[in-house]
Design a protein that fits this description.
Strand order of the largest sheet: 1-3-2-4-5
Distance between the termini: 48 Å
Helix content: 40-55%
Oligomer: single chain
Order of helices and strands: HEHEHEHEEH
Strand content: 15-25%
Number of domains: 1
Radius of gyration: 15 Å
CATH topology: Glutaredoxin
CATH superfamily: Glutaredoxin
Structural class: alpha/beta
CATH class: Alpha Beta
């Protein structure tokens, strides 16, 4: 059986994401306690992106394994970031127009916005320290 180049690329990307999820230091289960991560919609996104404070957004879906791995890491990043930035999540299934607006083709995709403009984009599972550093500059 042969597979299309797109399928091969997708399978390779998923394999790499799974490796990243199994890396030392990656959280192994859900975190507890209050969350600092906001669930964003098209309306709340626009209001937060227009503020002076940086905005870190995780574009995700509940059926995505790497996205489920990224969730607890995003919570850790939000704890490290504190009030220096707003941290939010966009469910691409519920907010398809917002995902399309930013050309989201792979999830998880994390984007840092400053002054309403995209300044940095990550695809795949990212560590909390990487995300905290991205908003701190």
């Amino acid at each position: 059986m042969t597979h299309s180049p797109v399928l091969k690329t997708t399978l390779l990307a998923c394999g790499l994401l799974l490796l990243a999820a199994c890396a030392p230091g990656a959280p192994k289960g859900p975190t507890s306690g209050p969350t600092a991560v906001q669930h964003l919609t098209g309306t709340t996104f626009d209001a937060l992106a227009s503020q002076d404070k940086p905005l870190l957004v995780d574009f995700w879906a509940p059926w995505c394994g790497p996205c489920r791995t990224q969730g607890p890491i995003l919570e850790q990043a939000a704890s490290q970031i504190g009030d220096r930035a707003v941290v939010g999540k966009v469910n691409v299934d519920e907010e398809a127009a917002l995902a399309k607006r930013f050309g989201i083709r792979v999830i998880p995709t994390l984007i840092v916005f400053k002054g309403g403009q995209e300044v940095q984009r990550f695809t795949g599972v990212q560590q909390a320290e990487t995300l905290a550093k991205a908003v701190g500059n």
